[in-house]
Design a protein that fits this description.
Length: 374
């Protein structure tokens, strides 16, 4: 365990006494507070058919309750041993026959901290605050990445937020993907959090997105109703039943519906307005990928790194062309209907300008189609 009896400290020869002669309470290597309860020790022997497998993958396979991130944390903290010797790194290849020992302790609680990060406030009252989230900002942190998030920025402005059950996501009632910009609604108190949570669950919140997708959609309107679950092969992706691989079913598929309406065709792309009736992870991106029309810039779901118009390759967008343009909801205290809008960000407008120039399209036509979103 970390602190005065951390094995990595003992092996490294680091002093166990802090300045002033007191025992250290925090490990100087991994910066974790010592645990009160002893770790649970497990052993297993590497099978011959696991020869050549990485240590971290072998441990994660034997202990599915542990994420690979958590396995790596335990390796870094000196809690994984190969034939009684502490493992130096998770990428070491196994030969088969090794005895693996792992000491599993509780992960120390991580709490989001205030950070001075500027935010664009679209609406605010006593119960809620709506932020225009930029692309590139994560909504809330994880145990291995607790900083630089929307939550950190909200706390940095002295914002009161609902407590919730997770100290890393106070106030958060819904999310936007990291590379998606636009309106996100945050609860300031627990009563508002409950009301908004119910509204999202009952699909009483109106969510409108603007997206640019590859290819020309043949119809002017459409609805996509495909269940979405975790991709069993590529764990960072979601998938629909039509997009499963190697005969393996997607994990925990959940019903999802996306409605869309064409705003404009620009050469071999289509600008669409999207209405979400459910809120599944990566929903818009997964659904349009299933139609073979991935969101421009979304290389995770099949879009090209550079959009090509004839012989012209446009500069890389560096984000997904997906923007949460409008959010309608009932004010949790009064019930009054509110609608918050986020204008299309400058980098997306610039990309449309480049696209129109390459396609020989008048920018005025696209501006007219996007009048409600600029």
């Amino acid at each position: 365990m970390c602190g005065p009896i951390c094995r990595r400290c003992l092996r490294s020869g680091r002093p166990l006494l802090a300045p002033g002669g007191q025992l250290r309470t925090v490990c100087p290597i991994v910066n974790l507070v010592p645990q009160e309860s002893p770790p649970i020790v497990h052993h297993f022997t590497v099978e011959a058919n696991d020869s050549g497998k990485r240590l971290d993958l072998a441990v994660a396979a034997h202990f599915p309750e542990l994420s690979r991130t958590r396995v790596q944390e335990l390796i870094d903290a000196g809690h994984v041993f190969v034939d009684s010797s502490p493992a130096k790194k998770g990428s070491v290849r196994l030969r088969g026959g090794e005895k693996i020992t792992i000491e599993i302790s509780e992960r120390p609680a991580v709490v989001a901290k205030a950070e001075a990060i500027p935010l664009k406030v679209l609406y605010e009252d006593k119960d809620v605050i709506a932020i225009n989230k930029p692309a590139g900002m994560t909504v809330h942190g994880g145990a291995g990445n607790p900083s630089g998030t929307l939550v950190n920025a909200l706390l940095g402005r002295g914002q009161d937020l609902s407590k919730g059950s997770d100290p890393l996501r106070p106030g958060i009632v819904h999310r936007l993907d990291k590379e998606t910009s636009g309106v996100i609604l945050v609860a300031k108190n627990d009563a508002a959090h409950v009301k908004l949570g119910e509204a999202f669950q009952q699909r009483a919140v109106k969510k409108t997105y603007v997206a640019l997708v590859q290819g020309a959609l043949k119809e002017e309107t459409g609805s996509i109703e495909l269940a979405i679950g975790r991709d069993p092969i590529h764990r960072t992706r979601m998938a629909t039943p039509k997009k499963s691989w190697r005969g393996t079913a997607i994990a925990n598929p959940r019903q999802a519906r996306t409605d869309w309406r064409v705003l404009a065709h620009i050469d071999n792309t289509t600008l669409v307005e999207v209405q979400l009736h459910t809120g599944r992870t990566h929903q818009v991106r997964v659904h349009f990928s299933a139609l073979k029309h991935p969101v421009v810039g979304d290389t995770l779901y099949g879009a090209g790194a550079n959009l090509r118009i004839g012989k012209i390759a446009l500069p890389k967008l560096e984000r997904n062309f997906l923007h949460a343009a409008r959010l309608g909801f009932a004010q949790p205290r009064t019930g009054a209907w509110l609608e918050v809008r986020a204008p299309l960000p400058e980098e997306l407008r610039d990309f449309l300008n480049q696209l129109c120039a390459a396609a020989g399209e008048p920018q005025s036509r696209i501006d007219a189609a996007l009048r409600a979103y600029l």
